[in-house]
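Researcher: Excuse me, tokens okay?
***
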Amino acid sequence: MTVASEPALRVGARVLLLNNADEVLLIHARDPDQPGHHWWELPGGGQDPGEKLEDTARREIAEETGLVLDEIGRKLWTRESRFTYRGREHHRLDHVYLARTDQDAPQVALRHTANERAGLIERRWWPTAALSQCTDKLLPAELPDLLQALLDNRFPLAPLALTA
């Protein structure tokens, strides 16, 4: 009998990207092996070896949306999670950064992996009020409150530590 090993920790960066109307860009994704399992999440992904987290955030935004960000803002939170995707256990630690853009719509991304294409449903800008009414799964679940605190200048200066 073999003992299942813990999945390796994968470090990544995500971006809470706001447009001029203070709408947040979210990715609607699904597990291709379980199409009924879907969620909305901030754009981002895994850190490459030797890459700074801010560079990971910038690269992931470009890959997932085609938007090129000159500036990445402060770190807002980290979020550790464990989940099953495509039948495998995963362990993630995402560092979430604030960024702004004056572009109204995500561009067509050219560098999606086959896995990303299989899981992508859509990208959408969400107004804060609509986000708080979302009945789909949000990652993190506290996103409406976190975003409202940020927009109301009530967000702590030190990054928060969230867990799933």
In short: The mean pLDDT is 89. Helices lie at 53-65, 114-119, 128-132, 143-151. The first helix runs from residue 53 to 65.
